[in-house]
Design goal:
heterodimer, A: Protocatechuate 4,5-dioxygenase, Chain A, 2 domains, 10 helices, B: about 290 residues, alpha/beta, Protocatechuate 4,5-dioxygenase, Chain B, 10 strands, about 20% strand
Chain lengths: ~130, ~290
C-alpha cells in the first residue's frame, strides 16, 4: 500500500520527500558541487561544459540555465541545494524567497519585518483556490 | 560520572552568522535579535560546561544527496567550518571530546539507536551559529570555550525522524553521558527552527502563536509535544519548521522536571523566527543555589 502523503494539500509548498529526492538527485548533486570555489570557477567559465558532467533531464538543465527557481523545486530540487546556485550568483536566501514568491525583494523583506506571512488563509490548498492563487 | 545539567534550544539562521561575521549586530535590524542572547552569554559563563552535545542539521553541505544518515555522531578530533558557497565562516575550529564521543557512539548503538559514525566531517552554520550566539564573536585564532560533540539529524529530506524518536534518543544520549567515567558537566543544545519556510510560493511563513506554545510545552508537556505529527510542523510552522524535532532530543536528555531559565523570541532574522530557550534540571538549580 502506498504511503499516505498527508502534506500534499499545503499550498505553495513542495515537501522534499523520497520521491522528489529521487527525481532531483543529479540536479541536487550539481548544485551542491558549487559550494567549492574551484567548481564555481569551472561552472562560471563554461556553464554548458560543466552541466554536461551531470546527467540531469533536459527540463532540469533548462531550469538551471534559466535560473527558474520555482521550476527547479518542481523538478526535484531542494532549496538547500538550489541556494548553492543562488550563492554562486550572489543571491541570498532572502532574495531567493523574493523571487520564488513573485513578491520581489523589497516587498518580501517588508513582509518579514512586519512579522512574516501569516498562517491564516495559508494552511490548506482550498484556501488558496478560493482566493484564486495557485 | 559525567552528567547533563541543562539544555539550550536555539535557532541557527545562517544570516545571524553573517551579521556577526560582518559586524552588523548593532544595526537596528539585528540589535533586537542579539539583545536576547546577552543573558545567555552570562548564563553559559556561569554554567561553564566542559562539553556541549550539539544537535543540529547539516544543510546539504557535508552530507550531499549521495548519503543521508538520519542520525550521525561527530567522532573526529576536530571539525573545521565548511565553505557553504560563500567561504568558510571566520570562527574557531570546533574541537571534540573524542573519547567521550566514541563512548556515546558505542552506547547509543547498544541502546538500539543505530547512528552513523563520522570520523571526518566539516560543520556548517547549523553548528557554528548557535556557538557564536552563546559565546559571542570569536575569530579563527581563538578557541571555543569548551569541547563540542556534534550530533547531526536529517531534517532536509522528508521524513525527519519523528519527535517521539528524537525525544527517546535524548534519553539514550543521557544514559550514554551518565555512563562515562570522567567527571564532566555537559550541556545539550537542540538547534534549528522556529517557524520558517524558505521555499516556493508560501516562503516567509511565520507562526508566532504556534512557536510560543512549542516553547511553553517544553516545560509543561514535553512528552505530549514530542508526539506532534510531522504534517503539523509543515503546515503550521513552515516546511523548514520541521527542524524543531531536534529540540526534542535536547528535551529528552533533561530531567522530567525542568525550570525555564531564559527565553527569547524575535521575528525576523532573514526568513526565520528566532527562538531561544534555556532549561535547567531543577535539582541542578537547587545545587547551585
Amino acid at each position: 500500500m502506498a504511503l499516505k502523503k498527508d502534506y500534499e494539500d499545503i499550498p505553495g509548498t513542495l515537501v522534499f520527500d523520497a520521491d522528489r529526492g529521487r527525481e532531483g538527485y543529479h540536479l541536487n548533486q550539481f548544485c551542491i558541487s558549487l559550494r567549492l570555489q574551484r567548481n564555481r570557477d569551472a561552472f562560471n567559465a563554461d556553464e554548458g561544459a560543466y552541466l554536461d558532467r551531470y546527467p540531469m533531464t533536459a527540463e532540469q538543465r533548462k531550469a538551471v540555465v534559466d535560473r527558474d527557481w520555482n521550476r527547479l523545486l518542481e523538478l526535484g530540487g531542494n532549496i538547500y541545494y538550489t541556494s548553492k546556485l543562488g550563492a554562486n550568483d550572489g543571491i541570498t536566501f532572502q532574495q531567493l524567497a523574493g523571487l520564488m514568491t513573485g513578491m520581489g525583494n523589497e516587498a518580501y523583506r517588508k513582509m518579514m519585518v512586519d512579522g512574516g506571512r501569516s498562517p491564516e488563509g495559508n494552511r490548506y490548498q482550498h484556501e488558496w483556490d478560493e482566493k484564486g492563487e495557485n | 560520572m559525567a552528567r547533563i545539567t541543562a539544555g539550550v534550544g536555539c535557532s541557527h539562521v545562517p544570516a545571524i552568522g553573517v551579521a556577526m561575521d560582518l559586524g552588523k549586530t548593532d544595526e537596528p535590524y539585528w540589535a533586537p535579535c542579539f539583545a536576547g542572547f546577552e543573558k545567555s552569554r552570562e548564563w553559559i559563563k556561569e554554567a561553564r560546561p566542559d562539553v556541549i552535545v550539539l544537535v543540529y542539521n547539516d544543510h546539504c553541505t557535508v552530507f550531499d544527496a549521495s548519503f543521508i544518515p538520519t542520525f550521525a555522531l561527530g567522532c573526529a578530533a576536530e571539525f573545521a567550518p565548511a565553505d557553504e558557497g560563500w567561504g568558510p565562516r571566520p570562527v574557531p575550529v570546533v574541537r571534540n571530546h573524542q573519547v567521550m564521543a566514541s563512548h556515546i557512539a558505542q552506547s547509543l548503538i547498544l541502546d538500539e539507536f543505530d547512528i552513523t559514525i563520522m570520523n571526518e566531517m566539516e560543520v556548517d552554520h547549523g553548528l557554528t551559529v548557535p556557538l557564536s550566539l552563546m559565546f559571542g564573536n570569536l575569530g579563527v585564532d581563538d578557541e571555543w570555550p569548551c569541547l563540542v560533540i556534534p550530533l547531526c539529524v536529517n531534517v532536509v529530506q522528508y521524513p525527519a525522524p519523528t519527535g517521539n524518536r528524537c525525544y527517546n534518543l535524548g534519553k539514550a544520549v543521557r544514559r550514554a553521558v551518565e555512563s562515562f567515567d570522567e567527571d564532566l558537566d555537559v550541556v545539550i543544545f537542540g538547534t534549528g527552527g522556529m517557524s520558517h519556510q524558505l521555499q516556493y510560493k508560501r516562503a516567509g511563513l511565520i507562526n508566532a502563536e504556534w512557536d510560543i506554545q512549542f516553547m511553553d510545552r517544553l516545560t509543561s508537556d514535553p512528552v505530549g509535544l514530542s508526539q506532534t505529527p510531522h504534517v503539523e510542523y509543515l503546515r503550521e510552522a513552515g516546511s523548514e519548521g520541521v527542524e524543531l524535532v531536534m529540540w526534542h532530543i535536547m528535551r529528552g536528555a533533561l530531567d522530567d522536571e525542568v525550570e525555564e531559565v531564559h527565553r527569547h523570541y524575535h521575528v525576523p532574522a532573514s526568513n526565520t523566527a528566532v527562538g531561544h530557550i534555556i532549561l535547567a534540571n531543577r535539582r541542578d538549580l537547587g545545587a547551585s543555589r
